[in-house]
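Quick one, probably user error.
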């Protein structure tokens, strides 16, 4: 993972576009990939998601246009007029869709960064969309009613998200990992308690772990002791098909040539 210089990016928003373009361009030159075709996932904090239910019981042919026409209040931090939308179907739930929003200014800033870097930007997607595409191909697929808990563990920040019956239910930002005796364990327990109060009865659980390899090695034994009845497994780092993967402090690059 290549660390971005301090101050060049904040909350997913590129602040120093020229400096970032030079950094990415130089990186690609070092890798011998000048002019490569690139697909990128935005930093996680650059986008948000909601599950919407369509009034006619089926996703319209052009979900983005339908949302802009109806302009519902989705409870997102930005008006629909100020975002790019990605609308994806939810398998097994034809009346609902996963809607992802990213501010236009932020996305346009990253497009400019890649233009200055001299690469061919093919795709620029919300991080959640990249993760969802990988999750859709998960084998075996979750059984009916099974709770799928996805825990990303990093040094400075972790994340927990929950999918039930193929539908995202919740997404929590958590402390980084040092030990499950630290704040991370308390937050994990709080999330589970919140869901139990909302859902009620216990259900089979499967936990997928991904993130920093060393942190996962340290956390996995503690998690197995803490979740004795849950199925635990490692999850490959979510990515799109590519010849090469490269990470830039949360900006996921998938490179082809």
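Nope, works fine. Designed sequence:
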């Amino acid at each position: 993972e290549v660390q971005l210089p301090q101050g060049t990016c904040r909350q997913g928003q590129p602040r120093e576009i020229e400096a970032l373009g030079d950094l990415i361009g130089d990186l690609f030159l070092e890798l011998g990939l000048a002019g490569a075709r690139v697909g990128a996932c935005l930093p996680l904090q650059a986008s948000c998601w909601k599950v919407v239910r369509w009034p006619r019981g089926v996703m319209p042919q052009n979900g983005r246009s339908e949302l802009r026409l109806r302009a519902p209040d989705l409870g997102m931090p930005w008006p629909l007029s100020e975002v790019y939308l990605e609308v994806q179907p939810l398998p097994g739930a034809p009346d609902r869709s996963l809607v992802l929003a990213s501010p236009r200014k932020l996305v346009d800033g990253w497009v400019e960064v890649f233009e200055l870097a001299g690469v061919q930007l093919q795709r620029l997607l919300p991080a959640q969309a990249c993760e969802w595409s990988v999750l859709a191909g998960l084998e075996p697929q979750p059984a009916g009613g099974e709770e799928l808990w996805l825990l990303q563990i990093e040094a400075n920040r972790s994340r927990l998200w929950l999918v039930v019956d193929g539908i995202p239910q919740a997404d929590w930002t958590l402390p980084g990992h040092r030990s499950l005796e630290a704040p991370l364990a308390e937050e994990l327990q709080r999330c589970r308690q919140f869901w139990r109060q909302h859902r009620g009865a216990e259900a089979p659980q499967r936990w997928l772990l991904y993130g920093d390899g060393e942190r996962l090695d340290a956390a996995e034994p503690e998690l197995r002791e803490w979740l004795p009845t849950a199925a635990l497994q490692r999850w490959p780092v979510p990515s799109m098909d590519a010849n090469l993967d490269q990470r830039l402090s949360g900006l996921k690059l998938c490179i082809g040539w």
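The CA atoms of residues 245 and 254 lie 5 Å apart.
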